[in-house]
From TrEMBL:
Pfam families: FAST_1 (PF06743), RAP (PF08373). The lineage of its organism: Eukaryota, Metazoa, Chordata, Craniata, Vertebrata. The keyword Mitochondrion applies. GO terms for biological process: mitochondrial RNA processing; regulation of mitochondrial mRNA stability. InterPro entries: FAST_kinase, FAST_Leu-rich, RAP. Keywords: Kinase, Mitochondrion, Transferase. PANTHER family: FAST KINASE DOMAIN-CONTAINING PROTEIN 2, MITOCHONDRIAL (PTHR21228:SF1), FAST LEU-RICH DOMAIN-CONTAINING (PTHR21228). It is found in: Mitochondrion. One of its GO terms (cellular component) is mitochondrial matrix. It comes from Lipotes vexillifer. The gene is FASTKD2. This is FAST kinase domain-containing protein 2. GO terms for molecular function: kinase activity; RNA binding. Residues 612-669 form the RAP domain. Its main location: mitochondrion.
Length: 688
C-alpha cells in the first residue's frame, strides 16, 4: 500500500512540474490570442479521483496530440469569456503535432471509459471560433495576393504558420517582377504581418522540420531581409535540429543556403550541412537531391568531400536523365570541381538529345564549361549546329549571347557566325550600343571573315557606331575601334572621335587604365602600319606598357642551334610598336641560305636580306581545335609582314611532343623555302 501511495505521489509531482500554471488567452475579434499568465483554480482532489499510476503514459499521449485545449468548468476558472489554456511544456517533451480527444479516459482497471457533459454557451462559442487547419496548396489556390493570405491568417490563425509563408511564396511565383515587388511591399505593411512572424518564431521548435525549412525557404524567396530577427532565429533553430534532416529536407536546406548571403549563422549551418552530407552521402537515393547538395556545399568545401560526391554521382550515372545530365555542368561549376569523367558522359547525353534543349540550359552549359576550363569540341559543335539549324526561330540577341560564350571558350562556329553576319547586315535595327560592341568583339577576337558578306557587315557596324558617337562612353568607343583595327577596317568618324584629346585623357586617367593603354598602343600601331592614309602622321603620346619577363622556348633554341649553328639567329627581339618575337633569322631573298648575324652584313646587304620571325605560340592563340589564328595573333602576323618579316609559327605543345630529329626536320621545312628544300644537299653552314 505504501509503495502504491508513493508511486502515485511521485506521478502527481511529475504532472505538477508539467503544469505549473495555466495560460489564459482572450480571443479578440482580429483572431489573435494575447496570452496572459493566470493561476488556474487547480483542484488536486478531483485529479486524485481520475488519475492512477498509469497517468504518466496518458500525459505523454496527451501531449502528442494537443497543445491548446478547451477549459472545463471544474478544471479552470472562467469569467464569462471564452478562454483557451496552453500548457507550458519543456521543449524536449513537446511534440511536433498536437490534438486531444476529450471523450476518452483511462480508468484504474485500464479500460476506456466515456464521459459526457452538456455543452455550455462557452463551449459553443469556443467551437465556433476554433480555426480549421488550412492546407498550403488550398490556401494558394483560393488567394490571389499575399495580402489575401494575411487576411485569412488574421481571421483564424492555425498551426503551423509555415503554411501561410509557403502559400505566399507559391502565389508570388505566379506574378511578374513588378507585381511581385508591389505585393511584397504590401505584405511588409500589412497590420498582421509582424504577428505572423512572431507566431512562426514561437512555433519554430515544435513544428515539423520540413515545415520549418519550407517556411525559411519562402521567407528567403519573398525577399525578407536576411539580417532580421525572424530569419536569424529560424537559422538558429534549423542548426539545432539539423540531425532531423532526411533526404527531402537535405534538398530544401541546400536550396536555402544556395540562395542566402554569407553570414555567421549561414556559415555555421553550411559547415553542419557538409558534415551531415559527408556521413549520409551514400544513403542519398535521388539524383536531384545529390545534385542540389553538390551545388550547395561551395567551392571551398574539402577536396575529400568533393571527391566523395563525385564518386557517388559516377555510381548513379546510369540513373541520369537528360535533365540531370544538363544540370550536372552547373553543379560541378558551383563546387569548382572539374570531373572529366562526369563531364564527358554528360556531354554525350546532352549532344545526343540537343534538339529542343531550352536556351537557358544551353547558356548554363557554356558558362559552366568556361568556368571549369572544359573544352569539348563535340559538345560545342553539337550546340552550334543545333542553333544554326534552327536559326530562324531564335532572336538575334539570344544568338549573340551564345556567340559571346563561344568566344569565351575560343570556339569558332563558322556556319553560325556566317548566318549571324548576314542577318545582322540585313536587319541592323536590333543593334544597340551594348550589342554592337559585343558583336565587334566576338568577330574580331575569333578573326572571322566571310568572302562575300564581310565588307557589307563591317560597313553596317561602322554606320551604327557612327550614329551612336554622341551617346557612347570613352571605353566602349575604344573597344569598338580596337575591334575594327583587328579586322583591318578603319572607319574615320569613330577614329577621329577617339583621337580627341579629352577622350584620350579620360582613357588614361579613369577606368582600367592598363587595359586602355594597351588598346591605344594597338590603335597607334595600326595607324602607322596599316593603310590609313588620313592618320599616317598621327602620333599618340602614350605611357610605356609594363615590361614582362619573357623567356625564349628552350627546346626551339636547341633545335635552331642544331639546325643553323650558333650565331645565326637572335633570341628575344623587341621591335617597334611593342612587338616581340622569340627568334629572328636572317636569310637571303630566296630563303635558301642563312646569313651571318652581324651589323656589317645587315648594312651592306639589306636589300638582299629576308628577315624571318619565329614565333613560339601557345594553344590559346588559335581558335579551339583548329589552326585558325585569333585576332591579336592575326594582326601581329599582318604587321610583321608589313615590317618585312617572313613569319614562322611554332606551336609549343606540338614541339614538346617531337623528338629532336623530328623537331629539326619540322623547323627546316618551316624556315627554308620549298624551292630551296627541293635542291639537293643544302649546306646549312655555308656562311656561318
Amino acid at each position: 500500500m505504501n509503495n502504491r501511495a508513493g508511486s502515485f505521489l511521485w506521478n502527481l509531482r511529475q504532472f505538477s512540474t508539467l503544469v505549473p500554471t495555466g495560460r489564459t488567452m482572450r480571443l479578440y475579434p482580429s483572431g489573435f490570442c494575447r496570452p496572459k499568465i493566470v493561476y488556474s483554480n487547480w483542484n488536486p482532489r478531483k485529479l486524485l479521483s481520475n488519475f492512477d499510476n498509469r497517468m504518466q503514459s496518458s500525459i505523454r499521449s496527451l501531449f502528442q496530440d494537443t497543445l491548446i485545449f478547451k477549459s472545463r468548468g471544474d478544471g479552470f476558472q472562467t469569467k464569462g469569456i471564452s478562454t483557451a489554456t496552453v500548457l507550458t511544456v519543456d521543449r524536449l517533451l513537446c511534440p511536433r503535432r498536437l490534438s486531444f480527444n476529450s471523450k476518452h479516459f483511462v480508468s484504474d482497471n485500464g479500460l476506456k471509459k466515456n464521459f459526457h457533459h452538456e455543452p455550455s454557451n462557452e463551449d459553443v462559442l469556443t467551437k465556433r471560433t476554433k480555426p480549421t487547419p488550412i492546407n498550403c496548396r488550398k490556401l494558394s489556390q483560393e488567394c490571389n495576393s499575399l495580402s489575401d493570405v494575411l487576411d485569412i491568417f488574421s481571421k483564424a490563425p492555425t498551426f503551423p504558420s509555415s503554411n501561410y509563408f509557403s502559400a505566399m511564396w507559391t502565389i508570388a511565383k505566379r506574378m511578374s517582377d513588378d507585381q511581385k515587388r508591389f505585393e511584397r511591399q504590401l505584405m511588409f505593411n500589412h497590420p498582421v504581418f509582424s504577428q505572423l512572424c512572431e507566431q512562426i518564431m514561437r512555433e519554430a521548435k515544435i513544428m515539423h522540420y520540413d515545415n520549418l525549412l519550407f517556411s525559411l525557404h519562402a521567407m528567403v524567396k519573398l525577399g525578407i531581409p536576411q539580417n532580421t530577427l525572424l530569419v536569424q532565429t529560424l537559422l538558429r533553430v534549423v542548426q539545432e535540429r539539423i540531425n532531423e534532416c532526411d533526404e527531402k529536407c537535405l534538398s530544401v536546406l541546400s536550396t536555402i543556403l544556395e540562395a542566402m548571403e554569407p553570414c555567421k549563422n549561414v556559415d555555421v549551418l553550411r559547415a553542419g550541412l557538409r558534415m551531415l552530407v559527408d556521413q549520409q552521402v551514400w544513403k542519398i537515393e535521388r539524383v536531384f537531391t545529390l545534385q542540389t547538395v553538390m551545388k550547395c556545399i561551395g567551392k571551398d568545401a574539402p577536396i575529400g568531400l568533393k571527391r566523395k560526391l563525385e564518386m557517388k554521382a559516377m555510381k548513379e550515372l546510369d540513373q541520369f536523365s537528360v535533365l540531370n545530365s544538363q544540370r550536372m555542368f552547373a553543379v560541378l561549376a558551383a563546387m569548382n570541381h572539374r570531373s572529366i569523367i562526369l563531364l564527358n558522359e554528360c556531354s554525350k547525353i546532352v549532344t545526343s538529345n540537343i534538339h529542343g534543349c531550352p536556351f537557358k540550359i544551353l547558356i548554363s552549359i557554356l558558362q559552366s564549361c568556361r568556368d571549369l576550363q572544359y573544352f569539348n569540341i563535340d559538345l560545342f559543335k553539337g550546340i552550334a549546329d543545333y542553333v544554326a539549324t534552327t536559326f530562324d526561330i531564335w532572336k538575334l540577341k539570344k544568338v549573340l549571347f551564345l556567340l559571346v560564350l563561344f568566344e569565351n571558350v575560343g570556339f569558332r562556329p563558322v556556319r553560325l557566325m556566317d548566318l549571324f553576319m548576314k542577318k545582322a547586315a540585313d536587319e541592323p535595327g536590333f543593334l544597340n550600343m551594348k550589342s554592337l560592341v559585343s558583336i565587334l568583339h566576338v568577330y574580331s577576337s575569333l578573326n572571322h571573315f566571310h568572302k562575300c558578306w564581310t565588307h557589307e557587315f563591317l560597313e553596317v557596324m561602322a554606320s551604327a557606331l557612327t550614329g551612336s558617337l554622341y551617346h557612347i562612353s570613352s571605353e566602349n568607343l575604344l573597344n569598338a575601334v580596337c575591334s575594327f583595327c583587328l579586322m583591318n577596317h578603319f572607319p574615320l568618324a569613330p577614329i577621329n572621335q577617339l583621337l580627341q584629346k579629352d577622350i584620350i585623357h579620360d582613357l588614361l586617367t579613369s577606368g582600367d587604365v592598363e587595359r586602355n593603354v594597351h588598346k591605344l598602343h594597338v590603335l597607334a600601331a595600326c595607324l602607322k602600319l596599316d593603310d590609313v592614309p588620313c592618320h599616317k602622321d598621327t602620333h599618340l603620346v602614350l605611357p610605356q606598357l609594363p615590361s614582362m619577363p619573357l623567356h625564349p622556348h628552350a627546346k626551339v633554341a636547341e633545335v635552331l642551334s642544331s639546325l643553323l649553328g650558333e650565331g645565326c639567329f637572335s633570341k628575344s627581339v623587341w621591335l617597334p610598336h611593342n612587338y616581340y618575337i622569340d627568334f629572328e633569322i636572317r636569310m637571303d631573298a630566296n630563303r635558301s641560305q642563312v646569313l651571318p648575324f652581324s651589323d656589317v652584313d645587315v648594312v651592306t646587304s639589306a636589300t638582299n636580306i629576308q628577315r624571318v620571325a619565329v614565333l613560339c605560340v601557345p594553344r590559346s592563340t588559335y581558335c579551339l581545335n583548329s589552326t585558325h589564328p585569333r585576332g591579336f595573333l592575326a594582326m601581329k602576323m599582318r604587321h610583321l609582314k608589313v615590317m618585312g618579316f617572313h613569319v614562322v609559327l611554332v606551336n609549343n605543345w606540338e614541339m614538346e611532343k617531337l623528338e629532336m630529329k623530328d623537331a629539326v626536320t619540322f623547323l627546316k621545312t618551316k624556315i627554308y623555302s620549298p624551292e630551296a628544300l627541293s635542291t639537293a644537299d643544302i649546306n646549312l653552314q655555308s656562311t656561318c
